[in-house]
Amino acid sequence: MNTELNTETISALEATAVERAVKLLSRSELVAVPTETVYGLAADSRNDRAVAAIFQVKERPYFNPLILHLPDRTWVERLAKVNAEQGKLVAALIERFWPGPLTLLLPKREKVSDLVTASLPTVAVRMPANPILRTILERGGFPVAAPSANRFGRVSPTTAQHVMEELAGRIPLIVDDGPTKLGLESTIVEPRDGKLVLHRPGPITEFALGEFGVVELVDLKGAIHAPGQTPSHYAPNKPVRLVNKGEVPADSAGAGLLAWGPSLQRSRFQVTFSLSESGDLLEAASRLFSLLRAMDREPVTAIYVEKVPEIGIGKAIMNRLYRAARATSESAGLSDVASGVSDDRAKSESERERA
Questions:
Q1: What is the structure's pLDDT at 229?
Q2: Where in the chain is the domain with CATH 3.40.50?
Q3: pLDDT class for 339, splitting at 50, 70, 90?
Q4: 236 and 253 in contact (C-beta within 8 Å)?
Q5: Do the beta carbons of residue 33 and residue 146 sit within 8 Å?
Q6: Mean of the per-residue pLDDT values for the chain?
Q7: φ, ψ for residue 108 (rounded to 5)?
Q8: How far is 325 from 305, CA to CA, in rounded Å?
Q9: Fold of 240-354
Q10: Is the dihedral angle over the CA atoms 137, 84, 198, 45 positive or is it negative?
Q11: By the number of CB atoms within 10 A of the CB, which of 31, 194, 279, 333 ranks highest?
Q12: At what angle do helices 281-296 and 314-331 cross, to 10 degrees?
């Protein structure tokens, strides 16, 4: 960034918060906004200059598409081409899960900017549940493109302070609505040929989607077809290594541990936090990114994370952790085996999810 901005945080409780956010967005400025998943970096999706600024501020590659957050359901037909058969399934998913953390990947109309979609033939849309963002969208009257409000590849922000740490001096305003409720990005699904193609696991689980049709899983090592599919992502600065519960690595004395449930090996590590003392996957999901950031600030050489059960939202948690481990091993020039993530393990993520 060539020009540093004065980044201000405004409480969502302040009477002028929504008005200020809408005014900036209408002027092609970027605003960090709360959602129920993670904080997003919002721009007017109708304005290519504003959308391009997202990529610049985040240092995000242009081949990675964005999600559009909609003011209301009527925007689906205005942005996407949905045939009659597909329309029934889309309508059922919207009725059940919107507003909420489900993103639909649909054939796009020509009016949708190629910057938003990375020139792909589909557009990703959702209607968020956070009341502050919904009010901003309703007052503005237009969809916003809003990926997570952090530098590309980094840990997604779940508080306004996280956004400030990532983007201070790069954006004018952060709307602070406290910690996000869910803590993980939305589920991305593509209704196609009577099936539901799951491009990114998230808070809406495979089991919940299964009520609406056969769920087909995407190989995450293939080409990018949807937002959030880069194989290396969600990474702190320190290396992330995955271990089984109770496993103690040789370098534990200088390392940190994110435990699953109560840690039985607390004294063997430099610092220990628990994703959930009670073994609650929803709590673990809501705490994951915040604890990765907290551990990154501790005087530890590496961050070990005990694997959680890959059931329900646990699949989404492990999806983020496998990619965080891969990202930090690649940046350190380590092999996947050295980082605690083997090629076979990363390659077989889809097979594990089918089990």
A1: 77
A2: 240-354
A3: very low
A4: no
A5: yes
A6: 91
A7: -90, 155
A8: 10
A9: Rossmann fold (3.40.50)
A10: negative
A11: 31
A12: 20
Average pLDDT over residues 170-199: 96
Separation between Cα atoms, residue 137 and residue 131, nearest integer Å: 10
Cα(299)–Cα(117) distance, rounded to whole angstroms? 40
Rounded Cα–Cα distance for residues 206 and 214 (Å): 10
Burial string for 93-129 (b: 16+ CB within 10 Å, else e) reads: bbeebbbbbbbbbbebeeebbebbbbebebbbbbbbb
For tokens 């077989």, the residue is 348
Within the chain, which residue ranges are assigned CATH 3.90.870.10? 8-82+103-180
Is residue 99 reached through a cis peptide bond, with omega within 30 degrees of 0 on the bond before it? yes
Query: Could you tell me the two tokens for 134?
Result: 């919904």
Q: Which of 159, 156, 163, 337 is nearest to 236 (CA)?
A: 156
d(CA 18, CA 11): 10
pTM: 0.90
In CATH, the architecture of 8-82+103-180 is Alpha-Beta Complex (3.90)
